[in-house]
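User: Quick one: structure for sequence A, then sequence B.

Assistant: Sequence A:
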Amino acid sequence: MRHALVAFLLLSGSALAVEPITGRASVTDGDTVVIQGTRIRLFGIDAPESAQLCQDAAGKDYRCGQRAALALADRIGEALISCEPRDTDRYGRTVAICRKGTEDLNAWLVQQGYATAYQRYSRDYVPAEATARAAKRGLWAGTFDPPSDWRRAKRAGGVETRPEMETPRAAAPATAEAVCTIKGNISRKGDRIYHLPGTRDYERTAINTSSGERMFCSEDEAKAAGWRAPRG
């Protein structure tokens, strides 16, 4: 009887350990979200860093990490997502597959070319990467350094980068959100208008960096650069 009870408790603990994390998510970068205070690293994929520059088809630089984060935020919108834990990384983050309804968001990011398959940890998303590469979507439309190579180069140069997904160790405090989410749009009349997350036109506003549009980290930064809030 005692052995049966112990087995039941062990099985119950295992079931609780893999309980999905569900709720509204805030996006901190192209492969990391936060749900109710829990930082979640998307399993099996690697997105460019927020400060990372890539080159588009014309050879022009753009902030590919920021673009990935915005794409993920737009894809999630106000919906609830559910994340299925797979592991815990060395920084205490939950490593998970996250879904919006039945859609695998990890796979979507790779299929659209916003992230790569992180083959160091999984080959689950290699087919999705092949699809994006063949269609020249996102990163594959131009040239870029693999995110892990970019981080390695920055660390070698003494530049602080975000933590990589590694073997579990003691958790470190979560860092502040690094993604600049205020959209600086230029209207057809040439008006420079910034849109805050959650405002009326935010979701439908797309940023074209080649035309001078950009992202801001704060309203003060946007105003200092000559952008204004929407009227009405």
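Sequence B:
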Amino acid sequence: MFGFGKDKKKDGSAGTGTPPEKLQEALAADLAKVMDPDMKRELQSLGGIRDLKATPEEVSFTLELHLHNPPHLQQLQDELKKVIASHAPDAKANITMAGNVRAAGGGAWNKVGVPGVKNVILVGSGKGGVGKSTVASNLAVALAKDGAAVGLLDADIYGPSLPTMFGLNNGTRPTSKDGKTMEPLDRYGVKLISIGFLTDANTPMVWRGPMVASACMQLFKDVNWAPLDYLVVDLPPGTGDIQLSLSQQIAVAGAVLVTTPQDVALADVVRAKSMFDKVGIPTLGLVENMSFFVCDGCNKRHEIFDSGGQRNADRLSVPFLGALPLETPVRQGGDEGTPVVVRNPSSAAAVGLREVAQQVALRIALLAVDAPREEPPPPKEPGKNPLLRVMN
């Protein structure tokens, strides 16, 4: 809430503002024309102004935003103040800001929605070793720190890394209230699930492709995720069974591509982008990880693996979400179980990752504006969950 005002004239009028009987109508019309600086849309097209009440003494309303932490919120507030002051110079302004993330899945919810989840976000690359898990983990935590309800699903059945990256000891298990569904673990405000929580860390998953894909689908559908604004999914390398099953069974809002600057990494990203295109999953943008290194001694930027994130994003015709530096705190955070956005929030990598999170949320919001306004379906009565037997 914020307020401002001026002294009234001696006759009790609202200065040179709009006549009281027309004030609310005039304010509603002009407030609706204010441009959201992040969405680049007028508020009337976003349904943003609610419960407007206006008198010469006080103007109050709720501003419903599609983002929990808009980058240019102050600019938007200033524009709203100007409009109010132009009609009621002496009024106190009481504006409530409310974040309300909408689903970008559209009509697909009726067929393949994850119960209670508004937006599923895939993080992939087509190649291992480029930092997908690091980006996915920090993206989830950054979104949660901005105020969103967030879950993180480790879809790498053969090589789960989420337990290590969140500091959950071997033997940590999800609970089940009914023997049919799993309750996700919670850390840093993020709901977590991984096959690594169901098996011993030293036990290899010697499963064929169809079994792996089936197990992955259960992590989506037999877990009590609700309610979530975003479910971030850390994909395994490649474009195989899990990716194909996801595209066929899950309503995905969009995918984030992660690469390193080398051409060999980018070649795999090109294939991943092509796969998402073929299955109708929007690409939200490209993140260039390990883009550069800044020397502690000379403070000079060194591009160890070459560079060109924006250029590569242009080649793929996707937005460039940001370049992340190669920093020791990122590795330390992953090994110690504390994502860098929590462990070293002022580091360059943490700042970059938070900016990536804001860009991802913005692009989801833009997709949702044009999508049918449907909420995800309520959880259904589950059947037996074979994965729960793995814990015993």
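The first strand starts at residue 35 and ends at 36. Confidence is low (pLDDT under 50) at residues 1-15, 106-111.

User: Thanks, that's what I needed.
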